[in-house]
Amino acid sequence: MIITRTPYRVSLFGGGTDFPAWYLKHGGKVVGFSISRYAYLTVRLLPPFFEHKHRVVYSCVETVNSIDEIQHPAVRAVLSDQRIETGLEIHHDGDLPARSGLGSSSSFTVGLLHAIHTLQGRKISKQALAGEATRIEQDIIGEAVGSQDQCWAAHGGFNSITFQPDGRVVVKPATLSRTRSSILLNHLMLFFTGLCRLAPAIEAEKIVNIERRIVDLREIGALTDEAIAILEGNGDLAPLGDLLHESWRVKKGLATQVTSVSIDEIYDRARSAGATGGKLLGAGGGGFMLLFAPPERQAAIRTALEGLIEVDFGIDYSGSSVIFDEPEQLSRCNARTVDVLNDVGSPRRGSDSILAER
User: Fold this and answer.
1) CB atoms < 10 A from the CB of 208, how many?
2) pLDDT at residue 219 tops 70
């Protein structure tokens, strides 16, 4: 049995410039960090006693006999891409809800790939893991997603990520001390709006609009460079609130579904209570709202947003990790399975008689 733990992320600036349709022409850059909230993927070999070959458990439970029958697009794509022939049982557990702007889909894909490689006895670098996940999501599944979430899920840390026109992706740790990172975290608040959305539909509209939003995307890029200078400097972090506010203003123009009346109302309440800036994380349309606020104003903001769930978080520096690996026991279990079948024959899958006789 293999268990991986893969972080979600908070993207501060640069979202939209990580789409290949943009950065392969103009280059792109984002800055943000992985958070100490995780997707857990458990993968084990499935004994041949059942009527199904694969069992996949997430918000649904799937029991199928072939990979092509699997409905979960990432599971189907990963198992097919890795040419899995043995029966598997896959469980997903997440600290936070899916479709909420924290890169949960990419954390799932990265965590599953990491587990499959480990199960097959292969080590994979963080760079290769991010690259494989990006390829699977963009090329195999065909989702309208960018290239940043996979990097934070695989690498962890507080990073600036540069997307080169030649396709190279460069992950560079931001030069923030732990003390300065703690000061930043003390100014950030994360609230769940209670609204989930399908990010690919919103992102697809952004991609279609790219050529009409060149000025906006260049402004987003300029704000990202300005934010990195503030973060890596020694001055006051307060200007980041104004930059987030400006970035959110520009982001709302990238697609019609990025915001809504209810989302704008939440943001306005937070600003009136003392937040200097903020944004919806991810594609927009719902999910988590990040706010920048002086610590002395945060109690008032909580009161203004009463009824919304606030989530505490720290920075994850590990990235996707294998937290449980028991391959020897798997091998022994598999050997015992062969012994059982040799003793009593090969009965119909699902028969309880084998276990009873042993």
Assistant:
1) 13
2) yes
